[in-house]
Design a protein that fits this description.
Elements lengths: L3 E3 L6 E4 L10 E8 L14 E6 L4 E4 L7 E7 L10 E5 L5 H85 L8 E4 L8 E3 L7 E3 L2 E4 L1
Antiparallel strand pairs: 1-2, 2-5, 3-4, 3-6, 6-7, 8-11, 9-10
């Protein structure tokens, strides 16, 4: 078939074959396998990978190869076991500097993304903890203010009650003195002088003073 392998690198290789007019299938089968040796068989099952390429094409780039490895690649125009004249053996080169650089970049990018995610998670946890502590302190402060207000209200109520009691005691003191001066319990009348209205004598009766006449005065209780 005149199969050739070109542009071999540490991870890729281009396989080229001539078009075959006798190929009745609609695709070519490109099979390849690493670590090939002369004792290996050409059985279809012994190949690691197989790619199907449309018959309109006559080349295919094999990718993801291992550097410094011996490969065999075969091309057939039908789903059958290949023969030796349909295969070629080639060796991959060392790892490409560009590929190694890309690998390092991908590794660094992965590490950076992982670190960023971890930092965001830690920052979110710290922010939640700070907000929780602030809310708790604010709630305790409000509770303390409410307790102080209740204590002040209680003190004011107690003080007002004491003042009312003291005022009541002051008001009741003259009545007690009056009762002490007049054991009989008789309330003294306020006498208002009115010579025109009061001409008849007014008699005041009491336990201590009975039948004492008083003239020219009116009693007003």
């Amino acid at each position: 078939m005149g199969i050739t392998v070109q542009n071999i690198t540490g991870s890729t290789a281009m396989v080229i074959w001539p078009k075959m007019a006798s190929c009745a299938d609609t695709f070519y089968s490109v099979m390849y396998h690493p670590n090939w040796n002369s004792s290996s068989s050409y059985s279809r099952k012994s190949f690691q990978k197989e790619e199907r390429v449309p018959t309109t094409r006559s080349s295919f780039v094999v990718e993801n190869l291992t550097p410094l490895t011996t490969y065999i690649v075969c091309v057939t125009c039908q789903s059958a076991n290949p023969s030796s004249d349909q295969c070629r053996v080639f060796n991959t080169l060392e790892r490409d500097p560009a590929s190694a650089s890309n690998t390092k970049k991908e590794l660094a990018l992965g590490i950076w993304l992982t670190s960023s995610v971890l930092l965001l998670i830690i920052a979110a946890i710290l922010l939640y903890g700070c907000l929780h502590i602030l809310c708790r302190r604010r709630r305790e402060r409000l509770q303390g203010r409410n307790g102080t207000s209740e204590q002040d209200h209680g003190k004011m109520w107690t003080k007002s009650t004491a003042q009312d009691s003291e005022e009541l005691s002051r008001q009741s003191q003259p009545m007690q003195d009056t009762e002490e001066k007049h054991p009989g319990g008789i309330q003294l009348a306020t006498i208002i002088e009115n010579p025109l209205a009061c001409k008849e004598p007014v008699m005041l009766t009491s336990k201590s003073h009975k039948g004492v006449p008083m003239t020219g005065q009116c009693s007003a209780i």
